[in-house]
Automatic annotation (TrEMBL):
Keyword Signal part of the UniProt annotation: yes
UniProt entry keywords in alphabetical sequence: Lipoprotein, Signal
Organism ancestry: Bacteria, Pseudomonadati, Pseudomonadota, Betaproteobacteria, Burkholderiales
Signal sequence residues: 1-17
Listed name of the protein: NlpBDapX lipoprotein
Highest taxon in the source lineage: Bacteria
C-alpha cells in the first residue's frame, strides 16, 4: 500500500490545484467541520464501537467520579496558574483543576470535538471519555507535489498511523478534579516480504502528544497560550520506579506516596492496553482486563504478544493491580481474578510493562 500518493491521478488534479501548505503546527487532527473524524481504516472501526468501559451489570461500585478521602499530596513538580496546575513525574503529566468534575465534562467534550475528533466513549458516570481513531495530517511529508496540489488531492495521502486519546476525570480530596490524558497509537505495516498487504498494529504511547493536548486543554480552560507553554515546560522532581520481587512475587516499587503513585499507575494502565473495569481507591485496587487493541484477529495484540498468546487465547485476562504505600514508598503488585498473589510469568511481564512505562 502506498501511503503518500497515487500517481495515476496526479495528472488529472494538476489543472485544478492551488498552492496550499499545512501550517507549521506539528499536530493537525482538524477535519472539514467541527466534530467530524478523519477516515478510519476498516481494521480499526470495530475498536471504536466497543463499549470497553461498560462495567458488567451496569453498576458502578467504585467509580472514579465518587472518590472517598485521599491522602495528602506531596507538592512536588507542580506549577499553577489560577485554578489550574500541572503535575509531572517522569514522562507522565496530569492536570489538577480546582473545579468540580461535573462542571468540566462539557468543556472537555467540546475540546476534543474542536480538535477534530469524534467521541467513541462518553461516560460521565465513570469519568471516562475516549476519542475515535483519527490521523495527524501534519505528519504528511510536504514534498513538491504535495505542496503544489494541496487539498485538491488531500484524501490520497495518508501517514499510515492513527491515534486515539483517553481522558479520565477523578475527583480529588479538595473538591477539584484530576484530569489525565493518555495516548494510544496504531501503525500500518506490511505483513509479507512482497509488500502487497498490510496490517494494523499498536505503536508506543507518545508522552509528548499527551502533554500537548494537556496544554491545549489548559488554554480551553482559560490559560493563555504563553502561560500554558511555560507551565508545560516546568521540570519534574526526581521520582524513580523499578521492578523487584518480594517473597517471590514480582512487584513495582515507586518512590512516591499513595496519592501520586495511584495517579501514575492509573495513567500507566490507560496507556498500556488494559481496561480498568472498576477501581477501589480506598483499598488501592484497580480491577483490570485486557482487550486486544487490534481488530485483526490473525495477529495477537500488544499484550497478546507480550504474553505469547495464540489465536486460541481469546478469553479476557483479568487481574487486580494493588497499590499499597508506606510513607513515601509504594509497592504495586499483581493479584489474580480471585484476589490471590500471582507469581506467574504473566505477572512478571505485567510488572515489567508498568515499571517501564513509569520511568
Amino acid at each position: 500500500m502506498n501511503h503518500f500518493s497515487r500517481l495515476s491521478l496526479l495528472s488529472l488534479s494538476l489543472a485544478l490545484a492551488a498552492c496550499t501548505v499545512l501550517d507549521g503546527d506539528k499536530i493537525n487532527y482538524k477535519s472539514a467541520s467541527k466534530g467530524t473524524s478523519l477516515e478510519v481504516p476498516p481494521d480499526l472501526t470495530q475498536l471504536s464501537r466497543e463499549t470497553r468501559y461498560a462495567v458488567p451489570g451496569g453498576a458502578v461500585s467504585a467509580s472514579s467520579f465518587q472518590l472517598g478521602q485521599v491522602t495528602q499530596t506531596v507538592p512536588t513538580a507542580t506549577t499553577s496558574l489560577g485554578d489550574v496546575h500541572i503535575e509531572r513525574s517522569g514522562n507522565q503529566r496530569w492536570l489538577v483543576i480546582n473545579r468540580p468534575a461535573d462542571k468540566l465534562w462539557e468543556p472537555v467534550r467540546d475540546f476534543w470535538q474542536e480538535n477534530g475528533f469524534l467521541l467513541a466513549i462518553d461516560q460521565a458516570n465513570l469519568g471516562i471519555m475516549e476519542t475515535d481513531w483519527a490521523e495527524n495530517r501534519a505528519k504528511i511529508p510536504q514534498d513538491f507535489i504535495r505542496n503544489t496540489l494541496g487539498k485538491v488531492i488531500d484524501s490520497l495521502y495518508s501517514t499510515g498511523e492513527r491515534d486515539k486519546f483517553r481522558t479520565r476525570l477523578e475527583r480529588n480530596a479538595s473538591g477539584g478534579t484530576d484530569v489525565f490524558i493518555s495516548h494510544r497509537g496504531m501503525i500500518e505495516v506490511y505483513n509479507s516480504s512482497a509488500k502487497d498487504t498490510t496490517v494494523w498494529q499498536p505503536r508506543a504511547a507518545d508522552p509528548e502528544l499527551e502533554a500537548e493536548f494537556l496544554r491545549r486543554l489548559m488554554v480551553k480552560l482559560g490559560v493563555s497560550q504563553e502561560q500554558s507553554k511555560a507551565l508545560l515546560a516546568a521540570g519534574a522532581s526526581p521520582s524513580s520506579s523499578r521492578a523487584a520481587a518480594i517473597n517471590g512475587q514480582p512487584v513495582v516499587q515507586i518512590d512516591d506516596g499513595f496519592d501520586r503513585a495511584w495517579r501514575r499507575v492509573g495513567l500507566s494502565l490507560d496507556r498500556t492496553g488494559f481496561t480498568v473495569e472498576d477501581r477501589d481507591r480506598a483499598q488501592g485496587v484497580y480491577f483490570v482486563r485486557y482487550v486486544a487493541p487490534t481488530a485483526d484477529k490473525a495477529e495477537p495484540g500488544f499484550l497478546g504478544k507480550l504474553f505469547g498468546a495464540s489465536k486460541a487465547d481469546a478469553a479476557p485476562l483479568k487481574y487486580r493491580i494493588t497499590v499499597i504505600s508506606q510513607g513515601a514508598s509504594t509497592t504495586v503488585s499483581v493479584l489474580d481474578a480471585g484476589g490471590k498473589p500471582d507469581t506467574s510469568a504473566n505477572a512478571q511481564r505485567i510488572v515489567n510493562v508498568i515499571a517501564d512505562d513509569l520511568k
